[in-house]
Amino acid sequence: MGVEQTWDVIVVGSGPAGAIAAYELAKVGLKVAILEKETLPRYKTCGGGLVFRGREMLPISVQDAVEKEFDSLAVYFDNLPQPFTAQRNFPILSMVMRDQFDHLLVQEAVKLGAVLLEGQALQQLEFGDKISLHTQKKVLHARYVVAADGVLGPTAKLAGWKETRKLIPALEYEVGVNSEDFERLSKEARFDIDAIPQGYGWCFPKANHLSIGVGLFAPKKIQLRTYYQAYLQKLGIQETTFEEAHGFQIPVGARKDGFSRRGVFLTGDSAGFADPLTAEGLTNSIYSGILAGQSIAQQFDQPELAANAYQAALEERLLPELRFSEVMARFFYFMPAARNLLMPRYGQRACEILTDVFTGQTVLSQDLKKKALKKLKWTNW
Ligand SMILES: Cc1cc2nc3c(=O)[nH]c(=O)nc-3n(C[C@H](O)[C@H](O)[C@H](O)COP(=O)(O)OP(=O)(O)OC[C@H]3O[C@@H](n4cnc5c(N)ncnc54)[C@H](O)[C@@H]3O)c2cc1C
After folding, report:
1. CA quadruple 164, 323, 75, 73: dihedral positive or negative?
2. Which of 84, 155, 259, 340 is geometrically suited to a Cys-Cys bond with 147, CB 3.0 to 4.6 A?
3. Are residues 25 and 124 in the same domain?
């Protein structure tokens, strides 16, 4: 028999979505617990490329967790002699290791009064006057639950959601290389679009090693490891000093059956909010964590209004952006011949626009759609 505890909100998962939701809830004095199956700090499979707009959304400084900053990025295609590059006067990409980054965010929520219950996995949910959460150690009760337990967490399924997200496989290696290779490759954050068909490879320099990976945007069974090894050759890496492999999935298609029900709010990967074009998930995890936290905080006594507020907030920017990105992804990954034909002429412009979007200088759903409509003289889109 376990100890029973009652909370206003229990956030399941201590990634960026959960930490920031807890931060927003604790900020207004609600009694919040973060339930985490691991003990922090814990490794999380991720390239750790935090784009500027995600970093800017954070209510706190994460400088202490940033290992490198890049105010430029490079996108390579096999059939082009030079990469497309974008340069800004701020860090387009900040490189973090997720154990440190996530832990820092959780610590900030804890400073505001959130309580971290680590080493405890959610196993079962029961719905009554309150929501009961069963872990291996305890039964906890809460008025609301924020599901922030990532792509493979059980909360959404336990609360009755079907699997409607689009999940793609990605393989990531933490790689040590000799000092010459590190010196050469740590000058830029690079993406290699032809490293794998219907996907891309990335090489993200960290303080003392490289995070190198390949992601596949098609629901196919292929040997990602073979493409990773070929990608090492493309990067000119002949030997490594260490290699740690981590395979995982990324949800690049949001759920189709809503984002809240019965007091449970889905955020981040649990909701399927990674970007369909780039698979960048940190920004929308942070953003949805903020929106869920604020919606619950503002309408705490009226769950229906809180749910409506969350849906309306998501519709304002996040969901239209995901839809737009999905269309772009279909063209980019599934019509490679047309894409490669257009790249020499429009690639640099596309690189600039996407950089503006991912740094928050352009809001895809509004600015870009307006411009496209104007160009097409088409209003019914
Ligand atoms: C290979 C790879 C590379 C990526 N690279 C990038 C990148 O460079 N930039 C980027 O923006 N995005 C990247 N992403 C996506 C990004 O990692 C995710 O979108 C992001 O981590 C989602 O955050 P989250 O808070 O929703 O969930 P997570 O960060 O996954 O956190 C979920 C938490 O829930 C906990 N949990 C799970 N089950 C339970 C349970 N039963 N009970 C309690 N706790 C539980 C987990 O232990 C974990 O701590 C990458 C993903 C992959 C797989």
Report:
1. negative
2. 155
3. yes
Q: Is 154 in the pocket of ligand 1 (CB under 6 A)?
A: yes
Domain count, the chain: 3
Domain of residue 140: give its range: 4-73+85-165+255-321
Would residue 327 count as lying in a domain?
A: no
**13 and 125 share a domain?**
yes
Residue 340 DSSP class: H
Closest protein CA for atom 15 of ligand 1:
281
- What letter would DSSP give residue 3? P
The answer to whether residues 235 and 266 belong to one domain is: no
pLDDT band for 379, please (50, 70, 90 cuts). very low
Over residues 310-357, the pLDDT tens digits come to 999 999 999 999 999 999 999 999 999 999 999 999 999 999 988 998
Together in a domain, 309 and 297: yes
Query: Which two tokens mark 241?
Result: 């000093």
Interval 254-271: pLDDT, tens: 999 999 999 999 999 999
By the 8 A CB rule, do 48 and 16 touch? no
- What pLDDT band is residue 377 in, cutting at 50, 70 and 90? low
Residue from 149, 155, 174, 290 to probe ligand 1 pocket by mutation (most atoms less than 8 Å from CB): 149
Condensed to tens digits (0 to 9), the pLDDT of residues 83-94 reads 999 999 999 999
CB neighbour burial string for 237-271, b if at least 16 within 10 angstroms, e if fewer: beebeeeeeeebbbbbbbbeeebbbebbbbbbbbb
